[in-house]
Amino acid sequence: MTSLLTHNGILSPRRVTAVPLGLIASVATVVLFAIAVASPGLIATHGPFALHLQESLHAPSLTYWFGTDESGRDLYSRVVYGTSQSLLIGLGATGVSLSLAVLLGSIAALSNRFAAGVVNRVIEVLFSFPTLLLALLLVAILGPSILTQIFAVGIGTAPGYARIIRGQILSAKNSGYVEAAISLGHSRPRILRQHIIPNALRPLVAIIALSVGQSIVWASSLSFLGLGVAPPSPEWGALLDSGRAYITQAWWLTVIPGLVIVALALAATTLGKYIQKALERGER
Amino acid sequence: MTGIVETRRIEDRVVTAPHGREGRLRVANLNVSFTRGGTEHHVVHDVSFTLEPGECVAIVGESGSGKSVTARTIVGLTGGRSTVTADEISLDGESLIGATKRQWRSTRGRRIGFILQDALVSLDPLRPVGREIDEALRLHNWGNRSERKRKVLDLLDSVGVPDPQNRARQRPDELSGGLRQRALIASALALDPEIIIADEPTTALDATVQAQVLSLIADMKSRGVSVILISHDLSVVAQLADHILVMKGGQVLESGEAHQVLHDPRHDYTRSLIDAVPSEHTRGKPLGPPVEIIATPHPPRVAEEFADYDGPVLEAKHLVKRFTTPDGSVSVAVDDVSFTLARGETLGIVGESGSGKSTTARLALALSRPDGGSVSLLGRDWTTLAEPRRRALRGRISVVYQDPLSSFDPRWNAERILLDSLPAELDGDSAARHARVRELAGQVGLPEDVLRRFPLQLSGGQRQRIAIARALAPSPSVIVLDEAVSALDVSIQAQILDLLVGLQRQLGLSYLFISHDLGVISHLSDHVLVMKDGAVVERGTPDQIFNHPRHPYTQQLVSSVPTLDD
């Protein structure tokens, strides 16, 4: 009786079965780095400072997976042993950055008009500096060390996050559910604790993962400029810096640590995006 | 796999038109289903109708009835993963079955125009409305640049946009709701289509603007344009329709000549829809099937102070509220507004957007500080109280908003929302708190399992019931209802209104009921204030306001309300 028809033509593109390749790869990468932090001896093939002077500047081979440097030290093992320091800087800087951002962001969003105005101007002034310039300034004042690096990167990246957090708090503060709580007669601390803080800080989980990757890149940039941890430390930025002198003879000394930094930053960022998506799904 | 199975042209088949008429547009046995998650959902069953030139067919139904899908299918916008079957869809004898994308594009716009509910989302926010209309002409290669320019201004003029020269250069957000909707209609009319499909064209509009848009569509009809009107609002449909299809769950329950369907409905569902429309004639009567409401007051200790109080529960004197706009000028949102609300009564405030009625509500709730005048609650001064001292009294007045979703913390389920709204004196007694929450759910007619759901998992009616339960939780004397039923379908609105009336009787509540909908106001209110531009222009009983309005604005407002008997 009835004939089939379509006048559709507007078919949605066929959905590729979702194998979260990115997720698997980034989890594997993070696990690998975690082992390198917890027990570097387990996966390193040589000592980080073991000199093999007759084997200097060897290209990557089966014995020296990432090649050797000018003193014949195994680059792969140095990268493995440098992981803990690089990650410490990344996590430390994230911690400093987000604590500062939460503090500044909350004052900007919640305090009286005068204090909020002052803090807002401070955030804006800091924000107008390029991140690296701000970090360089701090290193110049405090002198290079791992602690300086953590604080320099942390303070350098804080203004951006402070603005995000301020926006989150403001939108929670002006929401219908906060107004409903006010009209129920709930006190300010109760509304802050029950509604504003949890709703404003929820996106932070994802920001943390994104920030770790970025902080490592910033920290490595500082070391590369000779303003961070100094050689012979195997911190990744320092590895890059010391490899720079041999860039024409031994490409692996700069390219491989660079790729490792990229891999970690990518893995952390990808993971952060997945966490964010999962949280958003949870809201539905 | 997508649901599209087969394409076959069937022009050569002889199909008798459903009403035995020729028909500009003929649809016979239209079926639409969507495939989601492997299962097939049949959303439109065997819909047939014929549309003649200059005629209006209305498809009436509530959310999920399949009315919008039907309309979208007729213009080939059903979307992916759908299966569409029909014996006939033809325009002027030409079959639209199996039309290609390109054929559809030339049909849409040129022969069939589409007017959607919300002009703000349908129009490109970054583009002046004149350019938007020009785009429709350009896409169909209509005329050269200067001819198109003249045509755009003619179109805007023909839909009653004043000063089209300047308006054409403005972006949608710079125009008022009514002008925006007109601009959208102008773009749908750009290529002189034979058929206009209007999907809830006036739902978001104020009564007077709605009346203007409806008369505009009626005007097009008289010029020979055929109209398919999609609406959940029977009184709107009554203004325009020649034929009415009543849909529910994808089925056409009743179809017939408009006067017959509206005044002598054959199907019980149609009758229940008609009965659900609130008006002054429905005062004191239930709008839906009778529901028993058992509500027991739970006055907290703080309420004992007011046990003997029998003055007005809420009294506003000469309220003034000003706002400073970003350019530094001062606008007066509320201008010398006074009212009293007696125990157990309902005061209706009616006005259009921008009339200051919601600001008045915020002042009554002490969520905003007035620039002049005062409010007293249960005889106590309410405006000058410092917030910490006010908190103890806040439970005496509570609020229900139009959009309950945004007033719920998205992280909390319904039970948590209600637990949080209980008065502090129940603190520490977990069993009593949970019992009270179940009792509140029962009072608003919700089964207990709904309590476990999160706001996004609730239907519109359930959300509004939870919002009412939250307002009841502190056992208030007054509830401010700010457009509390405006976003609901007619039958859900009827249930909520019946619930509110029942609760008022059982608990002796007073309502400050704010709405743009005169039908709802006249159904509920004991006294009515009419507001315009921040000021009260008229006040009185519903009978005085709706049958003997004195102020010209009230007269205009009352006359623009569409009614079923038209």
Assign the CATH architecture of the domain at 299-396 and 478-518 in chain B. 3-Layer(aba) Sandwich
What's the story with the biggest beta sheet of chain A?
A: none
Q: How big a fraction of the residues of chain A is strand?
A: under 5%
Question: Structural class of the helix and strand makeup of chain A?
Answer: mainly alpha
H/E series of chain A, N to C? Answer: EHHHHHHHHHHH
- CATH class of the domain at 299-396 and 478-518 in chain B equals Alpha Beta
CATH topology assignment of the domain at 299-396 and 478-518 in chain B = Rossmann fold
How many distinct folded domains of chain A? Answer: 1
- The average pLDDT value of chain A, as a whole number, equals 81
InterPro entries (chain B): AAA+_ATPase, ABC_transp_ATP-bind, ABC_transporter-like_ATP-bd, ABC_transporter-like_CS, Oligopep_ABC_C, P-loop_NTPase
Family (chain B): Belongs to the ABC transporter superfamily.
Keywords (chain B): ATP-binding, Nucleotide-binding, Transport
Domain ABC transporter (chain B): 25-274, 314-558
